[in-house]
C-alpha cells in the first residue's frame, strides 16, 4: 500500500502533519515591505506599497556648456536653456520647443524656449514646476523677476497666463520659481518668462554658471 | 491501523474531510477588520486600515530641524575647507519614510543617505560662515559623480550670477546608491571651529521618492 504525499501550494506537511500556509504563500509578489497592502492583481493577489510615488518628467543636469553673453534678454522674453548637448537628462512625455521668434535673445535649434506637455500623458494630472535660472547679470546692480507661464512662447507675454508667483533674482541671490498646472487633455505649453527688469543687461547662460541652473517638472497628483 | 490527520494552516478537516483555510489566517491579522478596510503589512501582521487613512503620503526623507550644534563636532572637525570636502547635516531625529533607505550618522551629524533603486527629487541647502566676502557651492554626489545642480551661499555669488541656496534636481538610480553632499567650489569659507552652529541651524535635506 502506498500513500501520496499531500502538498498544498507546494508546501508539504511538517512533522506534526500540519501544512503551514499563510498569505505569503498565496501572494504572487510576496509581502516585501512595511506599508504594503493586499491588492488584487490580474493573475492573483499581490502586495504593493500604498505610499504615493510621483513621476519625474523634466530635469536639467549639466555643469557647464557653451553660450554667448552677447545675447541679452528683454522683459517678456522666454528664458532659454541649452539642450542639444544632452544637458537635460530627463524629458519624459515633454517636447522641447526650439528657441525662435520675437521673444528670445537668439534663435537656435540647440536651445529650448518652451516645453510642451503631452495632452494624453498629463491629462488630469497636476504638475509642479520649479526653476532656478542662470541668466547672467551684466552689471552688479541689475535685478529681475521671472515666472512660469502657460501659453505659446512665440506669442507676447500678455497672451500667456501665470502658473505661479514671481521669483526675484539679484546678483547675490535668486528665488526658486514655482508653477503648477493640471493637464487639460490637450497638449499644453509652458515657458519661463522675464516679467520685470531694472536697467542693465542680462544675458544667456554660459560656461560654469550653468551649474546652478535647475529646471524640473513632476506630477504631484 | 491509524492515520495521522493532516491539518492545513492549523485547520482540521470537517466531517466530510474538507479543510477550510482562510485567505489570511487569523493569527496573521492584528485587530478586527471593519467593512471596507484594507489589510496593510506592518512588518509583523496584516493590519486593518481604514480606506480614508490608507494613503500614507509620499515616501520622503526630511533632515534639518534648526537644531544647534557646533560644526566642529561633525566628522569635519575644526579644520579648514577645500573643494570636494564632504558636508555634514545635523538632525537628532531625521524623518525617513522611504522603504529601504538608510541614513548614516554619528552624534546626529549625517554623513550619507543610501537610497534604493528608483527616481528621487533631491533638495538640499546649508549655510556657512565666511572669513571674508566669499561663496560656497555644493551639490549631491555619488562618490565623485555630481548628481544635482549646485546651491550657492555667501555674499559674493556674483560669479554665479545670482543663484539659489537650494541644490535641487531629479536623480535616477539603477541600484542602491550612497548619496553624499560635497563642496563644488569655495572662497573664504571659515574653519570648522568658526562655523559654530550656523550650518546645523540652517541645513536641510528633503528627498522625495518618485517612481
Task: Walk me through the topology.
The complex is a heterodimer of chains A (221) and B (211).
Chain A: E1 18-19, H1 23-26, E2 36-40, E3 45-49, E4 56-60, E5 81-82, E6 88-91, E7 94-99, E8 108-117, H2 119-122, E9 126-132, E10 136-137, E11 144-150, E12 161-162, E13 167-169, E14 177-182, E15 188-197, E16 202-203, E17 214-219
Antiparallel strand pairs in A: 2-3, 4-6, 4-17, 5-8, 7-8, 8-15, 9-14, 9-17, 10-16, 11-12, 11-13, 11-15
Chain B: E1 7-8, E2 38-41, E3 46-49, E4 60-63, E5 86-87, E6 89-90, E7 95-96, E8 102-106, E9 109-115, E10 118-125, E11 130-142, E12 145-146, E13 151-153, E14 167-173, E15 177-189, H1 192-195, H2 198-202, E16 204-209
Antiparallel strand pairs in B: 2-3, 4-7, 4-16, 5-15, 6-9, 8-9, 9-15, 10-14, 10-16, 11-12, 11-13, 11-15
Task: Label the overall shape of chain A.
Answer: elongated
Number of strands of chain A: 17
Structural class by sheet pairing and helices of chain A: mainly beta
Helix content of chain A: under 10%
| CATH class label of the largest domain in chain A | Mainly Beta
- Rg result of chain B: 25 Å
Structural class of chain B: mainly beta
CATH topology (level 3) name of the largest domain in chain A: Jelly Rolls
CATH topology of the largest domain in chain B: Jelly Rolls
Low-confidence stretches of chain A: none
Q: How many whole angstroms does the radius of gyration of chain A measure? A: 26 Å
For the terminal residues of chain B, how far apart are their CA atoms? 61 Å
Series of H and E elements of chain B: EEEEEEEEEEEEEEEHHE
Q: Can you give the mean pLDDT of chain A? A: 89
Which CATH top level class of the largest domain in chain B fits? Mainly Beta
Structural domains of chain B: how many: 2
Amino acid at each position: 500500500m502506498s500513500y501520496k504525499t499531500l502538498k498544498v501550494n507546494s508546501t508539504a506537511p511538517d512533522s506534526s502533519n500540519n501544512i503551514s500556509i499563510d498569505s505569503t504563500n498565496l501572494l504572487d509578489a510576496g509581502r516585501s515591505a512595511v506599508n504594503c497592502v493586499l491588492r488584487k492583481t490580474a493573475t492573483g493577489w499581490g502586495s504593493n506599497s500604498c505610499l504615493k510615488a510621483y513621476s519625474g518628467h523634466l530635469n536639467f543636469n549639466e555643469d557647464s556648456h557653451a553660450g554667448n553673453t552677447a545675447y541679452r534678454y528683454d522683459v517678456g522674453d522666454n528664458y532659454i536653456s541649452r539642450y542639444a548637448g544632452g544637458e537635460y537628462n530627463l524629458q519624459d512625455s515633454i517636447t522641447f520647443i526650439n528657441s525662435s521668434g520675437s521673444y528670445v535673445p537668439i534663435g537656435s535649434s540647440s536651445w529650448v524656449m518652451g516645453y510642451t506637455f503631452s495632452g494624453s500623458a498629463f491629462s488630469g494630472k497636476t504638475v509642479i514646476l520649479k526653476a532656478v535660472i542662470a541668466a547672467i547679470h551684466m552689471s552688479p546692480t541689475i535685478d529681475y523677476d521671472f515666472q512660469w507661464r502657460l501659453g505659446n512662447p512665440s506669442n507676447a507675454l500678455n497672451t500667456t497666463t501665470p502658473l505661479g508667483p514671481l521669483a526675484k533674482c539679484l546678483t547675490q541671490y535668486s528665488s526658486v520659481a514655482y508653477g503648477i498646472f493640471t493637464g487639460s487633455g490637450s497638449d499644453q505649453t509652458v515657458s519661463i518668462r522675464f516679467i520685470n527688469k531694472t536697467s542693465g543687461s542680462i544675458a544667456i547662460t554660459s560656461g560654469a554658471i550653468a551649474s546652478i541652473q535647475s529646471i524640473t517638472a513632476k506630477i504631484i497628483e | 491501523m491509524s492515520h495521522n490527520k493532516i491539518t492545513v494552516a492549523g485547520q482540521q478537516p470537517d466531517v466530510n474531510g474538507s479543510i477550510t483555510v482562510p485567505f489570511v489566517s487569523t493569527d496573521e491579522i492584528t485587530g478586527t477588520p471593519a467593512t471596507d478596510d484594507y489589510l496593510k503589512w506592518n512588518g509583523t501582521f496584516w493590519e486593518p486600515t481604514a480606506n480614508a487613512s490608507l494613503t500614507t503620503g509620499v515616501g520622503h526623507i526630511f533632515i534639518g530641524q534648526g537644531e544647534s550644534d557646533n560644526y566642529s563636532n561633525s566628522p569635519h572637525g575644526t579644520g579648514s575647507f577645500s573643494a570636494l570636502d564632504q558636508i555634514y547635516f545635523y538632525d537628532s531625529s531625521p524623518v525617513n519614510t522611504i522603504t529601504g533607505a538608510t541614513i548614516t550618522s554619528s552624534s546626529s551629524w549625517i554623513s550619507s543617505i543610501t537610497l534604493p533603486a528608483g527616481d528621487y527629487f533631491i533638495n538640499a541647502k546649508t549655510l556657512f560662515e565666511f572669513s571674508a566676502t566669499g561663496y560656497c557651492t555644493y551639490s549631491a554626489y555619488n562618490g565623485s559623480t555630481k548628481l544635482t545642480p549646485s546651491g550657492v551661499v555667501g555674499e559674493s555669488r556674483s560669479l554665479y550670477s545670482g543663484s539659489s541656496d537650494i541644490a535641487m534636481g531629479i536623480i535616477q538610480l539603477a541600484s542602491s546608491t550612497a548619496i553624499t553632499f560635497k563642496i563644488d567650489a569655495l572662497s573664504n569659507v571659515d574653519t570648522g571651529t568658526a562655523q559654530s552652529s550656523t550650518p546645523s541651524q540652517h541645513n536641510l535635506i528633503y528627498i522625495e521618492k518618485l517612481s
